[in-house]
Amino acid sequence: MSFLSHPVANTLALALILMPTIGPSVRRDTDRDLAALRQSECEYRGITATYDELSRAYILATYTHGQLLHWQAQPSPQNPDSETLVTAIFSVESVSADDERAFIRNLRQDAPPHVGITWRYSTLAATRIAPANDYARDALETFTHTVNDFIARMVVARSNIELAEAPFLNPTTGLRVDKGTALLVEDRKSDWVLVRQPSTTLRGWVDSTFLESIE
């Protein structure tokens, strides 16, 4: 005679089948997360940069002789199943930025030999990227300052114009700019401005009345 009656035995067997398996959680593919973060883009006021570019630009703007050593990634201690901490590690010599923010002032007093910019890469519901340490937060702030400065210096040609070699001179360079072209202001002399077309070598002076600020 069986120790358990058939109904009890069947119930117990069903419970064992339905009982969740207790074991280690699924391990995140941190290498995949690292590659995805580096290629992901950060956007501010229509200007985009990948997090790889943003991290490198921050080091170039803030430190002297900054050099990327390597990237590393590990599951987040708080949420290991849904988040990865991705860090770009640079060697630096000193702080070069002429900036009066408290964070930069503290760095000037005791610049570390290595800087780790850590980003939190989360995929719980949708992919989200957020700064995970002070260096990453400062990198984002530097990016917004750079974009604001860039846009403040951007102008558009009101009409087809020709650039001059120096202010107050008639244009003789043969360098022409089409109406609607976006230009970056690099210098000013009275009503004349030195402009450059981004991502090209086109550069020259023009009367500011031919230009309109993007802002």
What can you see in these coordinates?
The termini are far apart. This protein has 215 residues and is of the alpha+beta class. The protein is built from 5 helices and 15 strands. It has 2 domains: 30-152, no CATH class; 154-213, SH3 type barrels. The protein is 29% helix and 33% strand. Mean pLDDT is 85; it is low at 1-5. The chain has a 5-stranded antiparallel beta sheet with strand order 14-13-12-9-15. The chain has a 4-stranded antiparallel beta sheet with strand order 4-5-7-8.
Please describe the topology of this protein.
Elements lengths: L5 H13 L11 H10 L1 E4 L2 E4 H12 E2 L2 E9 L7 E9 L2 E2 L6 H8 L4 E9 L5 E4 L2 H19 L1 E4 L3 E2 L13 E2 L4 E8 L2 E5 L6 E5 L3 E3 L2
Antiparallel strand pairs: 1-2, 3-6, 4-5, 5-7, 7-8, 9-12, 9-15, 10-11, 12-13, 13-14
Question: How would you describe this structure in keywords?
Answer:
four-stranded antiparallel β-sheet, 33% strand, SH3 type barrels, 29% helix, 15 strands, alpha+beta, five-stranded antiparallel β-sheet, disordered N terminus, 2 domains, 215 residues, elongated
Order the strands across the largest sheet as they lie in space: 14-13-12-9-15
Element order, helices and strands? HHEEHEEEEHEEHEEEEEEE
Question: How much strand?
Answer: 25-35%
- Average pLDDT level: 85
Using the CA coordinates, give the radius of gyration.
28 Å
User: Poorly predicted ranges (pLDDT <50, ≥5 residues)?
Assistant: 1-5
Number of strands: 15
Helix content: 25-40%
> What is the global morphology?
elongated
Q: Structural class of the secondary elements?
A: alpha+beta
Cα-to-Cα separation, first versus last residue: 90 Å
Main sheet, how many strands, which sense, barrel? 5 strands, antiparallel
Domain module count? 2
Q: Please, how many helices?
A: 5
